[in-house]
Design goal:
The protein is of the alpha/beta class. Helices cover 33% and strands 18% of the residues. Strands 14-13-12-11-7-10-9-8-15 form a nine-stranded mixed β-sheet. Helix 1 packs across helix 5 and helix 2 crosses helix 12. The longest helix is centred in the last third of the chain and has 20 residues.
Amino acid sequence: MTGSNTFREETMSISRREFLCTTAAAGGSVLALRRSAHAAGSDILRVGLVGCGSRGAGAASNAINADPGVRVVALADAFADRVQATLKALGDRHPDQVDVDSARCFVGFDAYKELIACGVDVVLLAAPPHFRPLHLAAAIAANKHVFAEKPVGVDATGVRSVLATCELAKKKNLCVVSGLCWRYDTVIRETIKRVHDGAIGDIVAIQTTRNLGYLWERPRQPEWTEMEFQMRNWYYFTWLCGDHNVEQQIHGIDKCSWAMRDKPPAKAWATSGRQVRIEPKYGDIYDHHAVVYEYADGARMYALARQQRNCYNDYSEVLMGTKGRCDLQKGRIEGETNWAFGQQAGDLSGFGVKKAGKDGLRPMHQVEQDEMFAAIRAGKTINNGDYMCQSTLIAILGRTAGYTGQQITWEQMQQSKLDLSPQRYAFDAPPPTLPGPDGKYPVAMPGLTRFV
């Protein structure tokens, strides 16, 4: 965005444009790939991590725990300090399965290219969401299996590119596993199965709530350029994170979409805004979203998300059907059918935990890596591309309805031309969103901001 009343619609950056042309060309042919020797089950699987934040480090640790033959051999991030911090954390935790020397520590906007070219078999993508389309396209083009954190884009242009890349991955028999981790949670899986079997009848309404408090911020340093400040505080800029209705609430949206058998909503409208987090350090994102998604059959999903201090917090999904109701997080169904799994979903202590938790279940973050590496060993593929793209676009639909104040249809969202990419990726380049003379960033204004 360049102003308070309009989204920023720029010509595609060179890298995005080149990517789209390459993907379109590659997608028209069936590529016969040599199956790597590591599929035999006893060889080393070389893993590279792009994006060395806490989730990236957690994903790398889960990958190590998934297979004794895994070796983390390369790290890449925009910042050297993040690479070194993750290298130390992984090395301390898994000294026998981390083999990263200085020649395979890559830094900068192009670090992902160097990592992909250094001989890895599997790439873990955990950089800020804006970069997911670019990074995923490069990894699949180079015939790498991929774990891609959520969301997979911040605009419809990016989501369309990821969808094309995932189709190419299918043709190449490459795994694309999504970081929408609740699809790998045992409690959620068992509960959704019963919902799909008709335990609550036809779903008429869903409520998903992700009300949280304070997150994090990194104070501006005098030596930082504007691009570095925004990259280090990526969570607070729409072009980098997609706003928290996309970056965080996507989990609830994805679970509800799964319950709805992954059929998209027909349209959405919202009441969203920026009420408490108004200082420039919080960039241009909102601090609350209330989105109503309407389905063609009359069902509705009410998606609530708030990030404000000292308020009531809640993280839940409740499904209401013609024969009963389901609390997904609690793994409980009540009505004509009464059933309970016996524990709540989501052992969030599972970031890098090797052993099963006290409940005996493998944490969802571990299960997604377990299943990916087992598939690679067996010469099979997992491709989560369809649902990870659709859930990302549903979340973007909700953000767009909130930013514009308009009712937006699914067809409009699919055809959106918005592209939040900067003109070039460099620390001396201007990011898409720039502060005004007062130091404040332009923020979307419902009723004024246009749909693009």
